[in-house]
């Protein structure tokens, strides 16, 4: 979107793709280091399987996202379904539409599931070890307080763009239940646990604000007709901001 198209032709990876490739390497490495520091963890084989699923899901998403974002330059509109897009309707033979729907399925459903389920599982397992009986350890340093905002914004983007609100809210409820359970034992969250917990709380507020802002958008309502209405930022972009760009 920002860099000139001449720098990254449509038949080559974009700058965002290279960042996504780096993410697919750096994030699983950091998750492994994170779980190493947790006093509570899953069996080693389950950790390995979770990380392998994460990398595979994120890689599937990388390919699907890369193609979908390039379609924007051809007039693809994310606020419409695959078959409702004008450029897709004109494809010949019509069986090509099935191929694009398969790509969308790999990107938005299979890739997201394989990516986010292990991600939130590892975060929750780490969270279970973030309790302490020492009240003095339940304080966040100033640097952590400053990072809560960017962290919450990151989770907001994961939940809205990834359409994983159910997974997020169940993880959040499990965290709340664990906090109340540990409190009965005289344990409180340490600084790391508070950082994660506050990030999830602010994320929920950001999601609520996002939904309230777009509540009466009839076009997005049509794209997301279910009980849980959480529009994707990319759909909002192609609907309301693409012409400005």
From TrEMBL:
Gene Ontology cellular-component terms listed: endoplasmic reticulum; membrane
Which organism does this record belong to? Manacus vitellinus (golden-collared manakin)
Keyword annotations for this protein, in alphabetical order, are: Membrane, Transmembrane, Transmembrane helix
Report the protein name in the record.
Ceroid-lipofuscinosis neuronal protein 6
Kindly list the biological process annotations in GO that this record carries. Answer: lysosome organization
TM helices/strands, residue ranges: 18-35, 47-64, 115-135, 142-158, 164-181, 193-215
Cell inner membrane listed as a keyword: no
Q: Which InterPro entries match?
A: CLN6
């Amino acid at each position: 979107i920002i860099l000139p198209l001449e720098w990254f032709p449509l038949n080559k990876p974009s700058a965002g793709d290279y960042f996504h490739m780096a993410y697919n390497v750096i994030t699983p490495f950091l998750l492994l280091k994170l779980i190493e520091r947790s006093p509570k963890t899953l069996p080693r084989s389950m950790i390995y399987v979770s990380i392998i699923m994460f990398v595979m899901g994120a890689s599937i998403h990388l390919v699907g996202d890369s193609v979908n974002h390039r379609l924007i330059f051809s007039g693809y509109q994310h606020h419409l379904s695959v078959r409702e897009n004008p450029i897709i309707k004109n494809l010949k033979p019509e069986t090509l539409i099935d191929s694009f729907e398969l790509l969308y399925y790999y990107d938005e459903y299979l890739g997201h599931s394989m990516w986010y389920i292990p991600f939130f599982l590892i975060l929750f397992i780490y969270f279970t070890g973030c309790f302490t009986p020492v009240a003095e350890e339940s304080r966040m340093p100033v640097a952590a307080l400053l990072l809560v905002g960017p962290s919450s914004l990151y989770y907001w983007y994961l939940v809205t763009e990834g359409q994983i609100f159910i997974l997020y809210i169940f993880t959040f409820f499990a965290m709340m239940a664990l906090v109340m359970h540990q409190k009965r034992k005289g344990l409180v969250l340490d600084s790391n646990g508070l950082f994660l917990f506050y990030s999830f709380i602010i994320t929920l507020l950001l999601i609520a604000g996002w939904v309230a802002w777009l509540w009466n958008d009839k076009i997005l309502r049509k794209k997301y007709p279910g009980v849980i209405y959480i529009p994707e930022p990319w759909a909002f972009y192609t609907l309301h901001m693409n012409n400005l760009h």
